């Protein structure tokens, strides 16, 4: 078994055990909606250096397989249960998982 096989199995285990749902609906700006597994992290705190000190930022982040959101764009939505989240900023993409900062879609 190769190293990439092991990392793929680890990614699958992470999503199987930590995903908020296996059936979120990603709705792209164009094209058909897709059902994907996602993790939603609420109240993520991040320090932002400021002029006179440090500002705390609280936000919600949504993580998914990078292959499930390869061309996702700002403004598209992901629905998890009764909540719909609008993609705001791609925070990270390590090739396996992508994390977006999201806001509730009102």
Tally of separate helices: 1
Number of domains: 1
Secondary structure class reads: alpha+beta
The whole-number mean of residue pLDDT values reads 89
Residues in β-strands, percent: over 45%
Q: Please give the order of strands in the largest beta sheet.
A: 1-2-3-6-5-4
Shape: globular
CATH topology: Thrombin, subunit H
The total strand number stands at: 6
What CATH first level would be assigned? Mainly Beta
Overall radius of gyration: 15 Å
Order of helices and strands: HEEEEEE
Distance between the termini: 47 Å
The parts where pLDDT drops under 50 for at least 5 residues are none
Under the CATH scheme, the architecture is Beta Barrel
Helix share bin: 10-25%
Main sheet record:
6 strands, antiparallel, barrel
């Amino acid at each position: 078994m190769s190293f990439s096989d092991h990392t793929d199995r680890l990614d699958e285990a992470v999503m199987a055990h930590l995903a908020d749902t296996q059936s979120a609906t990603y709705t792209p700006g164009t094209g058909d909606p897709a059902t994907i597994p996602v993790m939603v992290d609420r109240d993520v705190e991040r320090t932002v250096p400021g002029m006179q000190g440090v500002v705390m930022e609280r936000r919600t982040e949504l993580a998914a397989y990078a292959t499930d959101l390869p061309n996702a764009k700002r403004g598209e939505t992901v629905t998890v249960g009764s909540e719909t989240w609008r993609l705001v900023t791609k925070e990270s993409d390590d090739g396996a998982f992508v994390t977006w900062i999201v806001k509730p879609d009102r």
